[in-house]
Amino acid sequence: MIRNCANGKVDNSTTEIFWDGVYKDAITGEINIPIRASWKPKWTDGGGKWVKGKILISSAGEKKWYYQNDNGLAFSSCAKGFKFK
Questions:
Q1: Is residue 78 situated within a structural domain?
Q2: How far apart are CA 71 and CA 23, in angstroms?
Q3: Three-state secondary structure call for residue 45
Q4: Which of 11, 54, 68, 74 is most exposed, with the fewest beta carbons within 10 Å of its own?
């Protein structure tokens, strides 16, 4: 996911799962997983970049990404289109 939006070499990438927000929808059977992906490109100063969203996994195992927000560095259009293989 991160490589889709990061320019150059990515260092210190992490994915945080907010376990207290994970749940299974009783009606649709979807699993909702809120995450935040963070990274710090090697050539930059500061705290790095992050994208927050959620992954929905259908009862058939299909995964979809839903963008929520980012740290405001003008790559939200890229982050909205993350795809899973």
A1: no
A2: 25
A3: coil
A4: 74
Other residues' Cβ atoms within 10 Å of the Cβ of residue 2? 17
Tokens of 24: 């299974």
33 and 17 in contact (C-beta within 8 Å)? Answer: yes
Tell me the C-alpha distance between 18 and 25, whole Å: 16
pLDDT for 33-81, tens place per residue? 999 888 776 666 666 778 888 999 999 999 998 888 887 665 556 666 6
In a domain, 19, yes or no: yes
46 secondary structure, DSSP code: S
52: in domain = yes
Indicate whether 26 belongs to any domain: yes
What's the token pair of residue 29? 């059977």
